[in-house]
Amino acid sequence: MTATAPAFCTIVPPHLLDHLARAADPDVAAAARRTLVTDAANRTARRLTTVMGAAAVHAVADAPAGTPKRTIYDARHGTALPGRKVRAEGAEPTKDATVNRAYAGLGATFELFRDAYGRDSINGSGLPLDATVHYDEDYNNAFWNGDQMVFGDGDGRIFLDFTIAVDVIGHELAHGVTQYTANLAYFGQSGALNESMSDVFGSLVKQKALGHTAEQADWLIGAGLLAPAVQGRALRSMKAPGTAYDDDVLGKDPQPATMDDYVHTGSDNGGVHINSGIPNHAFYLFATELGGNAWERAGQVWYDVLTGGRLAVDADFADFSRLTVTAVRDRFGAGGPEDDAVVKAWSTVGLPTE
Asked: What region holds the Peptidase M4 domain (predicted)?
């Protein structure tokens, strides 16, 4: 698929920042409002880039196929992208831990897609991976803007440096994989699938990097991002959606785990970061039922659906669940453990498979 969606995808959803913007602590509220304003400007810029056409991206010279082509930039707390180049592919680590974490996270994501699925970078054709760190002042987010990754340092009160969590890096780059494949529309259930695909592959990046099996994995998205005073473990939990945080300032995790608790809302593009908990939980159930390395059988099935050409841009959850069953049977045959596990997983969250 050559067309790409005009989506500007952030790891921290707008509904959570809206909540923080009303906090009693003026510093917390100010950082959230600043982040919301910056995100709104970037979202508009992304739409304009899509309409007008982006500049062509050129491969890095002398970089063989199947190897990453990473460049890290430093915005020096400004918003002009990409910023000052601070580390190129193959260069030695710098004294800046944030730069080095970004570089390593891009590499871990590249390796998952190459080693597990035979994909050469996020577009399948060796696309260079660019990232900018130290973006803006007290910026409480990280995002994929259709061309590159961008990381804020957090405000230190609610969020810490967004390069800390390798699954966040994997999550945002996986939006690029979706952009170049199924191109899921960023609204409603198709948007929630878009977000869920990023959570799935972000979690798999972390699991593979750590060498964790499905049983050993924490199944958290953004663990380590919340400041010590915040009552919470992460931004989202695939194992137990709705339990990632419960804090007086941050609020309570609103994600449902099943269709019985599906959230009908006009905010957050129709709840793309909220209802993604349902397909997230289905993947967790599928992967843990199979056991072993989740990026292998379970991840392969999700990748097959994402890249197989049958997933419509406006697909809903039921469309996706049925396609995973087809993908399982195409790859592993009907009636086997994979077939039983995927049907059971979707049934548990309340979605059809026939």
From this structure: 73-179
3.40.50.1100, 3.10.170.10, 3.40.50.300, 3.40.710.10: CATH of 9-180: 3.10.170.10
Secondary structure (DSSP) of 253-301: ----SSGGG----SSHHHHTTTTTHHHHHHHHHHHHHH-S-TTTHHHHH
This prediction's pTM: 0.94
pLDDT of 46 reads 66
Class of residue 223 by CB neighbours under 10 A (exposed 0-12, middle 13-18, buried 19+)? buried
Q: What is the pLDDT of residues 283-299, one digit of tens each?
A: 999 999 999 999 999 99
Query: In the beta sheet, which residues pair with residue 247?
Result: 251
Catalogue the active-site residues: 172, 273
Kindly state the tokens that stand for 140. 């409480």
CATH 1.10.390.10 applies to domain 188-349: yes
**Residue ranges of domains in the chain:** 9-180, 188-349
Average pLDDT, the chain: 93
